[in-house]
DNA sequence: GTAGTCAGTGAACAGTCGTACGCTGAAACC
DNA sequence: GGTTTCAGCGTACGACTGTTCACTGACTAC
């Protein structure tokens, strides 16, 4: 029997699979607690490997946390890319943006919950990793905004400020939606409505920023 | 010796003092971790009482957390009262508001760190308690805004939205200042500058809200 | 085919954890 | 005065924690 001697790369593939299992199991456990209280044994038990096996993949829970940040990045990238691809008039873009946030949060609640919770959590390296990523998105958004015709003539620092407000608004909306839970349709509607209103206010503010927003005119 | 038989109420006073010690010790320990990983023994050890003694004051760590929320309220009340008492033109009020936030956070970092961290932390009752309090502040602020002459003619829901933005902006600023640390004067200046800019944008937005902010005009 | 690599094991380590029990001694009460 | 109350103690319990070590056995490379 010329059975192929197991597909090549079986070794490394299996290792990756276990690593992935550790991460997604952690993500599940983290829905009800925070990273600083997550136990190493708790994770390995959920995956079905021995505690010692954990160290073949991570040198500790904080390390796993940082890895989770990087994985979570995927969800965030997909969301922001979808938002930035949005076209149409302002009101339509606001509606679609909020819609997109709500859908992504509903589809991948664990990722967003992790980000929102550990952004201010008790594990410094994870906090830093999340902050770095959000800053990165903010910078990307700044560049996109710089190309916007409505924002012609804006100072770079003002553009950064505006981008930061959008990013923070996204995070806060995600946090509120998660807190409401998946079945609270009425509360969810309330949150998305409030977010649309906020984005509208920010847009009105930017429309008149150059008229009276700069302190130099004082 | 007609020594007074100890001031009356010694018993209750001592109990209160121990309770207070438990709470402030917890607050200190929480600067480096989150509530869901805070150990009961860890707290009693810091205070110098036996683990069993803890139960004379709280029925568990989550209970202590909720009590901490109520205590923390004092700091928040002082801050918001100071902000609301501010007068003068818009730009001056913005500057003073941000100044006040920075000072309060610098003077009572532990309280604000606790609020910011546990607002999205892993302990549901504490999360709810903080959300309730922040909602309360938001409502109070809504009523104050309703009396503002510049906001005459605003819909109640729009006022609530604006108040919510201010509150969230406060929380986010506090979070950023805490993350920077007390000695990062340059970073602190950067943060306060950015916050002033944001508040300015919100103000410009509200100044033109009635002109074009309402979706009914579409 | 044979030697080497290495993901995962299983046992043991010294701690820590939350909780329960009955006790003590001082404050509070009548 | 005597009696009651009760904050805090000491001890003990079983369960759980992170980390280490030498090990096995399936995969890989030559």
Short description:
Two copies of one chain form a homodimer. By secondary structure, chain A is mainly α.
Query: What is the name of the CATH class of the domain at 61-207 in chain A?
Result: Mainly Alpha
CATH homologous group name of the domain at 61-207 in chain A: Tetracycline Repressor, domain 2
- In N-to-C order, the SSE pattern of chain A is HHHHHHHHH
What's the alpha carbon Rg of chain A, rounded to whole Å?
21 Å
Tell me about this structure.
The structure is a homodimer of 218-residue chains. Chain A is mostly helical and 218 residues long. The first copy, chain A, has a domain at 61-207: Orthogonal Bundle (Tetracycline Repressor, domain 2). Chain A contains nine helices and no strands. Chain A has helices at 10-29, 40-47, 61-84, 90-107, 109-118, 124-146, 156-180, 185-207, 209-212. In chain A, α4 (90-107) crosses α7 (156-180) and α5 (109-118) packs across α7. The longest helix of chain A is centred in the last third of the chain and has 25 residues, at 156-180. Chain A is elongated. Chain A starts with 9 loop residues before the first helix and ends in a 6-residue tail after the last helix. Mean pLDDT of chain A is 93; it is low at 1-5. At the A-B interface, α7, α8 and α9 of A face α7, α8 and α9 of B. Chain B binds a DNA duplex (30 and 30 nucleotides) through α1 and α2.
């Amino acid at each position: 029997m010329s059975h192929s001697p197991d597909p090549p790369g079986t070794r490394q593939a299996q290792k990756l699979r276990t690593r992935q299992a550790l991460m997604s199991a952690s993500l599940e456990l983290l829905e009800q607690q925070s990273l600083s209280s997550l136990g190493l044994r708790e994770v390995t038990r959920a995956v079905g490997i021995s505690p010692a096996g954990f160290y073949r993949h991570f040198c500790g829970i904080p390390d796993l946390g940082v890895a989770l940040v990087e994985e979570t990045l995927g969800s965030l990238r997909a969301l922001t890319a979808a938002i930035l691809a949005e076209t149409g008039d302002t009101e339509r873009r606001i509606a679609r943006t909020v819609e997109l946030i709500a859908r992504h949060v509903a589809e991948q609640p664990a990722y967003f919950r992790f980000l929102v919770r550990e952004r201010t959590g008790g594990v410094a390296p994870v906090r830093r990793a999340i902050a770095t990523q959000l800053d990165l998105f903010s910078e990307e958004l700044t560049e996109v905004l710089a190309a916007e015709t409505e924002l012609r003539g804006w100072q770079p620092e003002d553009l950064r400020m505006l981008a930061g407000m959008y990013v923070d608004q996204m995070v806060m909306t995600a946090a509120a939606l998660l807190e409401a839970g998946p079945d609270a349709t009425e509360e969810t509607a309330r949150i998305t409505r409030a977010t649309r209103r906020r984005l509208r206010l920010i847009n009105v503010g930017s429309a008149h920023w150059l008229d009276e927003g700069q302190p130099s005119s004082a």
